């Protein structure tokens, strides 16, 4: 079964995509399913692998400033508990137990999603995020690797190849890598659930077959897709009528509208509360619906 995500399971039931095998959608399940790889969720290990600088948040004197404070492990995602420390005053104010401070990275945000079977790569997808700052994004889009983009993403693809060869040669499943520019900041042993909505039933069907039967049929006609989030204010309660949800979810070029307002414990970045995201194959159609939703929630 698809674990941890009721809305995704409902979507799969509607499209006859329910799974007999357990497929983790969140890190809370994947870290239990693959205990031999649990170290991957320790951010210190990922930073050490790249010879990147970090120190424990709580030292009387920081090793360097500015720095970025984050949890050693974050199994809920969405940048929860992170903060930018631009000076010593920030460093002291933002102290949180079980946090580390790392060097501040700048550049393009992206994810690389692969499906691997004991070192053999079965599917590659690279998705670019357009940052709004404070952990928020305006949208994510999967890119078609033309000749120019092959060169600009070479560092990320090389990292993924080397990391899996070094550490995941016996692993079978989906892996999601998060990058800022050419530096990897997180690795997740699960599919990218948000982009699966954008890639649609064909991709989800192959993920299902792979976890159930170990087979994979290459997909060549639908590598594109995007997700566009709708943001609200932190600590504010938002509601939506069922009839309105149905109205916004039915549109050509849109696969699904996912509502975070159902998840009372949903993690959120420092910059705001994510209320929903629109996912599909058409950016223009998704953007139109996202704008209408934003007006609905925020006036």
Instruction: Give the spatial strand order of the biggest sheet.
Output: 11-10-7-8-9-12-14-13
Question: What's the N-to-C terminus distance?
Answer: 39 Å
| Total domain units | 3
β-strand number: 14
CATH-derived architecture of the largest domain? 2-Layer Sandwich
The SS-based structural class is alpha+beta
Helix content: 25-40%
Major sheet attributes = 8 strands, antiparallel
Order of helices and strands: EHEHHEEEHEEEEHHEEHHEHEEH
Uncertain regions spanning at least 5 consecutive residues: none
CATH class placement of the largest domain = Alpha Beta
Strand content: 25-35%
Mean pLDDT: 89
Using the alpha-carbon principal axes, give the shape: globular
What is the helix tally? 10
Cα-atom radius of gyration: 19 Å
CATH topology of the largest domain: D-amino Acid Aminotransferase, Chain A, domain 1
Can you give a write-up of this model?
The chain is built from 10 helices and 14 strands. It has helices spanning about 5-15, 25-35, 45-50, 90-95, 145-150, 155-165, 195-200, 200-215, 240-250, 285-299, and strands at about 1-5, 25, 55, 65-70, 85, 100, 110-115, 120-135, 135-140, 170-180, 185-190, 225-230, 255-260, 275-280. The strands form 3 sheets. The protein has an 8-stranded antiparallel β-sheet, with helices on both faces. The model has no long low-confidence stretch (mean pLDDT about 90). Strand 7 (about 110-115) and strand 8 (about 120-135) form a beta hairpin. The chain has about 300 residues and is of the alpha+beta class. The radius of gyration is 19 Å and the shape is globular. About 30% of the residues lie in helices and about 30% in strands. The chain has 3 domains: about 15-40 and about 105-220, D-amino Acid Aminotransferase, Chain A, domain 1; about 55-100, no CATH class; about 225-299.
